[in-house]
Amino acid sequence: MFRAALRLSVSGARSLTRSRPQYTASVAARSYSHGKQETDEEFDARWVTYFSKPDIDAWELRKGMNTLIGYDLVPEPKILEAALRACRRLNDLASAIRILEAVKDKSGPHKEIYPYVLQELQPTLNELGIPTPEELGIDKA
Amino acid sequence: MAHQAHAYHMVDPSPWPLTGAIAALLMTSGLAVWFHFHSTTLMTLGLILLLLTMHQWWRDIIREGTFQGHHTPPVQKGLRYGMILFITSEVFFFLGFFWAFYHSSLAPTPELGGCWPPTGITPLDPFEVPLLNTAVLLASGVTVTWTHHSIMEGERKQAIQSLTLTILLGLYFTALQAMEYYEAPFTIADGVYGSTFFVATGFHGLHVIIGSTFLAVCLLRQIQYHFTSEHHFGFEAAAWYWHFVDVVWLFLYVSIYWWGS
């Protein structure tokens, strides 16, 4: 947390009340010249709703994840939690672990994002019994 | 001397539909024989018969139209409908392969790594040879249009030159694509990526070869004064087919090469 706070002040963060890195802000980075711009909250809510569909099917899960990972952002933990629960409903452990790998990949050079996300998701990972790639030893391929 | 009281073409009996059907039979059963008994004789026989059928059937159509005058305006209208319907059927043929591609790539399965391109696949850079290929085909679309206008304006030499250029561009595309196939870091056996890539682009390449051949026949006919400025449907059909091939490439390029990378 300390390191995060230090980094926040160095990068001139907007708000120091947030105890998380600023780079996970899920801005729908479309610079349209006009038209209503979706807020971060609306974006997150939309995706949480998408993955929370009770009867989501395997195709929709895969499509949703590919579309989400295609954006220029790291998804908020609340979106990822909804996706992991969708994996549970679909009995797809492989995709659940793959989602964690995708988060690490999307973080790119910002190495502090992945541990933060895992930290936020820990209760869900425990509840659903999802191991991390690190725990399985498959993170160093 | 008996004359017909209508403008339509009642074709004379011809053996070519029969030889064509026999060729189809020999090629298909020949394929099975090749798979099971390692002999290509039957299939090769079928292929030769197919080539002979095509040559003689289309030669007869040229005789009937260009030399015997059977291709009156209503007959030509029928031929136009025919070519349009054929090209439409080919569009549906390719639609199937695009369906297969999008089926696999929009929601990639865990077996592929949940991502597209799949894990382990290094796709071709869309801005290298594939982009050149796009430019080549687009240019050939321009040159074939130049040919059409030359024919309509009675410019014999320009028609021959631009048609030759069109064919050369078609051959250039084929050569570049063949080289790409040889150099590609993945094969048709590399999962659904390899399958969709090579089947879709492979059938497209086959159509480029067919289209180039059709244009080459038109070139020979143009040199031999078959076409007039008012009547040159054989060429128009070839040009339509060529544009179709070009459009299919554009869809392939955008979908498989560019988006799919």
UniProtKB/TrEMBL annotation, chain A:
Any one Pfam family match given in the protein's UniProt record, by short name: COX5A
Molecular functions per Gene Ontology: metal ion binding
Q: Which domain of life is it from?
A: Eukaryota
The record's Gene Ontology biological-process terms are: mitochondrial electron transport, cytochrome c to oxygen
Alphabetical list of CDD domains matching this protein: Cyt_c_Oxidase_Va
Location in the cell reads: Mitochondrion inner membrane
Instruction: Name the GO cellular-component terms.
Output: mitochondrial inner membrane; respiratory chain complex IV
Keywords assigned: Acetylation, Heme, Iron, Membrane, Metal-binding, Mitochondrion, Mitochondrion inner membrane, Phosphoprotein, Transit peptide, Ubl conjugation
Is Acetylation among the key words of this record? yes
Main localisation: mitochondrion
Q: How does it sit in the membrane?
A: Peripheral membrane protein
The keyword Methyltransferase appears for this protein: no
Q: What pathway, per the record?
A: Energy metabolism; oxidative phosphorylation
Its quaternary organisation is: Component of the cytochrome c oxidase (complex IV, CIV), a multisubunit enzyme composed of a catalytic core of 3 subunits and several supernumerary subunits. The complex exists as a monomer or a dimer and forms supercomplexes (SCs) in the inner mitochondrial membrane with ubiquinol-cytochrome c oxidoreductase (cytochrome b-c1 complex, complex III, CIII).
Function of the molecule: Component of the cytochrome c oxidase, the last enzyme in the mitochondrial electron transport chain which drives oxidative phosphorylation. The respiratory chain contains 3 multisubunit complexes succinate dehydrogenase (complex II, CII), ubiquinol-cytochrome c oxidoreductase (cytochrome b-c1 complex, complex III, CIII) and cytochrome c oxidase (complex IV, CIV), that cooperate to transfer electrons derived from NADH and succinate to molecular oxygen, creating an electrochemical gradient over the inner membrane that drives transmembrane transport and the ATP synthase.
The Swiss-Prot or TrEMBL record describes its family as follows:
Belongs to the cytochrome c oxidase subunit 5A family.
What is this protein identified as?
Cytochrome c oxidase subunit 5A, mitochondrial
**Name of the coding gene:** LOC107716663
UniProtKB/TrEMBL annotation, chain B:
Instruction: Enumerate the subcellular locations listed in this protein's record, separating them with semicolons.
Output: Mitochondrion inner membrane
Question: Which is one Gene Ontology cellular component term of this protein?
Answer: mitochondrial inner membrane
GO biological process terms, semicolon-separated: mitochondrial electron transport, cytochrome c to oxygen
* One Pfam family of this chain: COX3
What membrane topology does this protein have? Answer: Multi-pass membrane protein
Q: Which InterPro entries match?
A: Cyt_c/ubiquinol_Oxase_su3 (IPR024791), Cyt_c_oxase_su3_dom (IPR033945), Cyt_c_oxidase-like_su3 (IPR000298), Cyt_c_oxidase_su3-like_sf (IPR035973), Cyt_c_oxidase_su3_a-hlx (IPR013833)
**Reaction(s) catalyzed by this protein?**
4 Fe(II)-[cytochrome c] + O2 + 8 H(+)(in) = 4 Fe(III)-[cytochrome c] + 2 H2O + 4 H(+)(out)
Keyword Mitochondrion among UniProt keywords: yes
Positions of the Heme-copper oxidase subunit III family profile domain: 4-261
Keywords (alphabetical) are: Membrane, Mitochondrion, Mitochondrion inner membrane, Translocase, Transmembrane, Transmembrane helix
Q: Quote one Gene Ontology molecular function term.
A: cytochrome-c oxidase activity
Q: What is its main location?
A: mitochondrion
Q: Where are the transmembrane segments?
A: 16-35, 41-58, 79-102, 159-177, 197-220, 240-260
Return the CDD domains for the record: Cyt_c_Oxidase_III (cd01665)
Function summary: Component of the cytochrome c oxidase, the last enzyme in the mitochondrial electron transport chain which drives oxidative phosphorylation. The respiratory chain contains 3 multisubunit complexes succinate dehydrogenase (complex II, CII), ubiquinol-cytochrome c oxidoreductase (cytochrome b-c1 complex, complex III, CIII) and cytochrome c oxidase (complex IV, CIV), that cooperate to transfer electrons derived from NADH and succinate to molecular oxygen, creating an electrochemical gradient over the inner membrane that drives transmembrane transport and the ATP synthase.
Subunit and partners: Component of the cytochrome c oxidase (complex IV, CIV), a multisubunit enzyme composed of 14 subunits. The complex is composed of a catalytic core of 3 subunits MT-CO1, MT-CO2 and MT-CO3, encoded in the mitochondrial DNA, and 11 supernumerary subunits COX4I, COX5A, COX5B, COX6A, COX6B, COX6C, COX7A, COX7B, COX7C, COX8 and NDUFA4, which are encoded in the nuclear genome.
Hey, which family's this protein in? Belongs to the cytochrome c oxidase subunit 3 family.
Its recorded name reads Cytochrome c oxidase subunit 3
Taxonomic lineage: Eukaryota, Metazoa, Chordata, Craniata, Vertebrata
